């Protein structure tokens, strides 16, 4: 009898708390952008298709406009849909929207550390060092050309070894692309049959697939509860620990042979900076090194290999486009030499095709979540500090104001009347890297 009474008290207390939270949310909602009414705890879960959250958000934008509020479980999110709304927030009010929002699958691993998933001063310092160091090792310059050509050669040999048999190119492309970033981060490439390398790629792929799955979407909404429940998320939690352990071991190996006067790779450069700044407030410490290295490995592997995969598929579907690319390659490069970095300046059609592949494939339609770092007024609405924001990149790259037929694959989106490459302000395939002092430009994460 006592147990039954205690259970009744717990149930009543829980319902009372949920009711109070709901009433408080309704009070706040009077000053927030409009949106569907959330239910206690589950929020707007019933209005979302977890198999295609982007389409659900697109449908909600048609009803509530370019700025609206949704609740992903108990988590409140302000959605920015369309070029104008995203630009106003991330350019005109860049400081207010500069925090990093929550992504439960990746936060389980990164926990606010590293260059990709940190905020505030930590993010600024890590980004500054990462960009400078990557440039020192040739990223964005001709210096990385040799690394790419070397890996392209290994890829060709691997494909020739299949003797024309049907293959899934996923793992082939993943190995090649990951080895380019590996040579910069670790100072060495992996053999394609290296079991450690294959395990690393498998774990990263497992995390990315989970994050995009319906179960991953549920985990993103209800991770505070699901992290204690049985299910696929428990395997992902184990994977995140293995990834961290792998990177810790790589850092340890570098540290044991470090020469402060001759950095061999990104890890060495970070370790040297750690030695230079040993004060207790420095952001250059072991946790940030491990997580920044993992961030670079993720960013330099999955997005590029996925884009290549989509690119091959689209060229197969559009043989007329493929023929024009081949024609330009023949004219500029020919068959008697390898391509060089400078060649892309003479190949506007090929560049336009690459841009259109990125636009059409729309690999990161929801964008990277942001967070309001202080109470903010935006378009007449009040956004409390700590509110997560989704700048929907997919809405930019399907905007008919910038792309007349957004559902069609058309390289002309990036060519002017003279057949020369032109910029398109709404082209942001991977990230929002805009500066308040500059015009809108595209950038890869």
TrEMBL record:
Cytochromes P450 are a group of heme-thiolate monooxygenases. Its EC number is 1.14.14.1. Its cofactor is heme. It comes from Rattus norvegicus. Its main location: endoplasmic reticulum. It holds the Pfam family p450. This is Cytochrome P450. It is an enzyme of class 1 (oxidoreductase).
